[in-house]
Design a protein that fits this description.
The protein is built from 11 helices and 10 strands. By secondary structure, it is an alpha/beta fold. Strands 1-2-4-5-6-7-8-9 form an 8-stranded mixed beta barrel, surrounded by 4 helices. Helix 10 links the parallel strand 8 and strand 9. Helix 1 packs across helix 2, helix 3 packs parallel to helix 5 and helix 5 packs parallel to helix 7. The chain is globular, with a radius of gyration of 20 Å. The N and C termini lie far apart (about 70 Å). Bound molecules: ligand C2E and calcium ion (3 copies). The site of ligand C2E has 23 residues, from strand 2, helix 2, helix 3 and strand 6. One calcium ion binds next to loops.
Length: about 270
């Protein structure tokens, strides 16, 4: 019994510490959103395979805190989703990214959208208003939504996405292959693009099963008239593979990681312009 009690104490101590840390992080994130301090957007180029031009960028949220340091999105995005802060954070990213990219001719910007944001019944109105206010035409905006989120988008959320598409906004299926949906589902979803998850892209030159998945998604995407994007391209072998598989666009560290907004022009100067 003594042993059990001892373990119990250790357990609650750790739980307390985890909860305190979480609360501290939640408070800090909320404060950062009020002041804007420490929050920024990075932009990662997306390149058209056929001619190597940068056609768009993906906006990636960054958070730096004086005490916590750099907090990775894999930590603060789930926290923001659980606490509902993602609605304000998502809108901040959207407005920041639209304003920055409105100043670059012809480039599109892809913004990540959480399932929680889709539950807001005025989601489509907010998105179109943000783009309009930034002076970014709707057809230069893409929304990246994971397959899990889009499959569960029912009723009002599905209708909001349809209205956005009708207004010219493109919908991109993010991390494709990691959720539970099947290839057959691709034809039923109202999307314009499909992004093959980097786990398949990176394994493709080495493993037959990943190679088959990349080729299958690429072929089906082409047959359905979708733009197929390969994410996480890090090596020349991966680039060649996704090109030969017929992918339309690629993105990854081989070309560039995300860069801050004030370094974007410099980065784009290094590529043939679109
Ligand atoms: P994601 O949407 O799949 O974004 C791509 C992630 O892969 C980014 O990580 C990017 O930096 C990273 N990446 C790009 N190229 C490569 C590569 O060649 N190799 C490897 N290993 N990684 C690569 P990041 O910025 O840490 O973001 C992680 C995730 O956090 C994103 O995954 C997205 O789900 C989420 N996220 C980031 N910003 C936002 C945002 O503004 N809103 C929402 N809702 N989610 C966001
Ligand atoms: Ca994404
Ligand atoms: Ca992704
Ligand atoms: Ca193609």
């Amino acid at each position: 019994a003594k042993k059990v009690r001892h373990r119990y104490v250790v357990y609650t101590d750790q739980l307390d510490m985890a909860l305190n840390h979480r609360r501290a992080m939640e408070g800090a994130l909320s404060a950062a959103m009020t002041t804007g301090e420490g929050l920024s957007c990075h932009y990662q180029p997306m390149v058209r395979v056929s001619d190597g031009r940068v056609v768009g960028v993906e906006a990636l949220c960054r958070w730096w805190h004086p005490q916590l340091g750099v907090v990775p999105p894999a930590q603060f995005i789930p926290l923001a989703e659980e606490t509902g802060l993602i609605v304000r954070l998502g809108e901040w990213v959207l407005r920041t990214a639209c304003s920055r990219i409105a100043r670059v001719p012809d480039l599109f910007v892809a913004v990540n959208v959480s399932a929680v944001q889709l539950r807001d019944e005025r989601f489509d109105a907010r998105v179109l208003e943000a783009a309009a206010q930034a002076g970014l035409p709707a057809n230069r905006l893409e929304l990246e939504i994971t397959e899990t989120a889009i499959v569960h988008a029912e009723g009002a959320a599905a209708a909001a996405l349809r209205r956005l598409r009708a207004a010219g906004v493109r919908i991109s299926l993010d991390d494709f292959g990691t959720g539970y949906s099947s290839l057959a589902l691709l034809k039923d979803l109202d999307v314009d693009k499909v992004k093959i998850d980097r786990s398949f892209v990176q394994q493709a030159p080495l493993a037959d099963d990943s190679a088959a998945i990349v080729r299958a998604v690429s072929n089906l995407g082409a047959a359905l008239g979708l733009c197929v994007v390969a994410e996480g391209v890090e090596t020349e072998a991966q680039r060649r593979f996704v090109r030969d598989a017929g992918c339309d666009e690629l993105q990854g560290y081989l070309l560039s990681p995300g860069v801050p907004g004030d370094r974007l022009d410099e980065l784009l100067d290094g590529y043939p312009s679109a």
